[in-house]
Amino acid sequence: MKTRAAVLHVVGAPAPYEKSQPLRVEEIEIDPPGPGEVLVRVRAAGLCHSDLSVINGDRPRPVPMALGHEAAGEVLECGPLVPDLAPGDHVVMVFVPSCGHCIPCSEGRPALCEPGAASNTAGTLLGGARRLSMGGRPVNHHMGVSAFAEYAVVSRRSLVKIDPGLPFDEAALFGCAVLTGVGAVVNTAKMTPGMTAAVVGLGGVGMNSVLAAVLSGARVVVAVDLIDEKLDLARSLGATHGVNARAPDAVEQVRAASGGGVDFAFEMAGSVQAMELAYRVTRRGGTTVTAGLPHPDHRWPLQHVNLTAEERTVKGSYVGSCVPLRDIPRYIALYREGKLPVDRLMSDHLKLEDINVGFDRLASGRVVRQVVML
What we know:
2 domains, 7-stranded mixed β-sheet, Quinone Oxidoreductase, Chain A, domain 1, 374 residues, alpha/beta, Rossmann fold, 6-stranded parallel β-sheet
């Protein structure tokens, strides 16, 4: 069958993307699902910095590639060896498929699945297959999902079944922004009530970290960003303080608000400058958590003696250290109880044809989450 999809052919096109058109909406061929695979009618897909970093070259990936990794949709067809899903089921797509057999998966850390990471880097589905093509040439999958399309064939290991009562645009956010942002606080940091936190970078992931810090009972939550409107939104979501990162005394403001430094600082901007700020506002004995994904060549000059003498901890958090089958239903339940208002993070809804304009807006830093409706 055929599907319309947003395909990236050249990496590093100049901005504005509305003019250079790095993503072309094209008709491509999609094969039926193979063993352990599922055909999904994509209904909604969020625009994320992880997509933007492929477009601008920060995360090298093979092209041509059909982009999109944060999405929700409806099962249309199941391939062989998929006994637990059926046509009509609603699903959230997870951008790291978990094989269930490698050492990280066996340790309960499916976000670090080794075959999943290898297939994502290669542009294939889990197991090595490509189900997309154009004019007889293979088209690579993005993170095993390729959701900026009407239809997607994905591994069963990339799907979590959800309650059909949740609107697709809201459900899509749970596949990346919520998993990563909330998980960094709940799973990676394991924050407990009464602690203090700073979140540096208020995109979709960072805003979800703010929500999770508030939900975890943090007594101080300092939101840090370059854009005042985002600071206002973070305060309305429960942040106790907002600090513009451009301020020459930004570090001092955060330290003053938290009584000398925070227990946990979360770097969610994906830049060396943001990581440096997050580390500097972390108190003695505190933890700096990063979910940022800068260019592989970027290096952060860590002060070794400071790390030792102050017993600091620096931790990475990928996909929020999540267990998708456990965490997605939990986070959706919290949302429905009004404790995790992720719907307030939606900036706009787009058509697939407007996707390059959407990435211009994302690159500007002035939106939180835009969702393509399909």
